[in-house]
Specification:
With about 300 residues, the chain is mainly alpha-helical. The chain is about 70% helix and about 0% strand.
Length: about 300
């Protein structure tokens, strides 16, 4: 007698796929900011240049067995490699459970879309964290891929009345979906660009780079207008909390330092130092936007609907 495989058992497959793609993503994260090819040469230790052997290239497991060091020169290997692989695996399996059951082409296309979206976001998050850079080679093709997926999978995000009106005009569903993706991309890009321009005019410091603009265009193409707005506001909230915590940490350190060398107005001077740090520190805002875009994928609709119901 044949028994169908349970969804829990099948979830091993996307997890393993995630580990493999996470391993390749580490190559992207390291090489793209340095303008190196992600195809050749093969992976090597960044310290001694020794090529990574095939049996040392098993995601996560190799890093653990080698105790986070190169086999040849024993130079430490960043735990980021294992973290990225695990995160990619967990995101892929989370997407699988979010879409399951995979009972038709639409579900399969949606799962593939989430795999691509999470792969791109994870790469952009770590590149921005390490280099304060959101490369065009990921954001621009990502926006195009998001628009292509909108032909296969309805995006949503526009008011239901507008969607019904367009369908009533005999617009085919793929055309409505592409329009929703285009509006999401335009909204995300223009909103971030506008905020950055206002910030620059007021404070004469660049607050948002064009990389953030292109990132939100990509997010909008994948998620549509409603979840794009959720991503922006949730990302702004998370970034503000980060800034506040960073200021408090610097303030406490400055107070401790000044108390060792008694000076007048300790608290005021320490707070001025903390504000100066935040003013000139380049916050990797793409980290917060990318993280909230992942969150929006899973719970954005529920959070937005809950918030709107408060005013009904």
């Amino acid at each position: 007698m044949n028994y169908p495989l349970s969804s829990d058992l099948l979830s091993i497959v996307p997890f393993l796929f995630g580990l493999v793609f996470g391993s390749f993503l580490n190559v992207v994260i390291y090489r793209v900011p340095r303008h190196l090819s992600v195809v050749s040469p093969r992976s090597a230790c960044p310290n001694c240049g020794a090529g990574v052997r095939a049996y040392d290239n098993v995601p996560v497991l190799s890093w653990i067995l080698l105790r986070g060091r190169c086999r040849d020169c024993r130079h430490p290997i960043s735990p980021r490699y294992a973290i990225v692989e695990l995160l990619c695996g967990f995101l892929f399996v989370s997407a699988y459970f979010y879409i399951a059951p995979l009972n038709g082409p639409l579900a399969l296309y949606t799962l593939l879309k989430l795999f691509v979206f999470f792969f791109l976001l994870l790469g952009l998050i770590f590149i921005d964290f390490e280099h304060h850079l959101l490369p065009d080679v990921l954001t621009i093709p990502g926006s195009i891929i998001g628009l292509i997926f909108s032909l296969l999978i309805p995006v949503g995000g526009l008011p239901h009345s507008l969607t019904r009106w367009l369908l009533g005009l005999r617009w085919p569903l793929p055309a409505v979906s592409v329009l929703e993706a285009l509006i999401g991309a335009a909204l995300g890009a223009l909103f971030i660009y506008g905020v950055g321009e206002v910030y620059f005019r007021v404070r004469h410091i660049e607050g948002m780079g064009l990389g953030d603009v292109k990132l939100m265009a990509m997010v909008g193409a994948f998620l549509g207008a409603k979840l794009t707005l959720f991503t922006i506001f949730a990302g702004a909230l998370l970034g503000s909390l980060f800034g506040l915590v960073a200021m408090l940490v610097v303030w406490r350190k400055r107070i401790a330092r000044r108390r060792r060398q008694p000076q007048p107005h300790v608290y005021g001077r320490a707070w001025a130092s903390a504000r100066l740090m935040l003013r000139y520190y380049e916050v990797p805002f793409g980290v917060f936007l990318g993280s909230m875009a992942i969150l929006a994928t899973f719970v954005g609709d529920q959070v937005v609907d809950w918030y709107l119901n408060l005013y009904r």
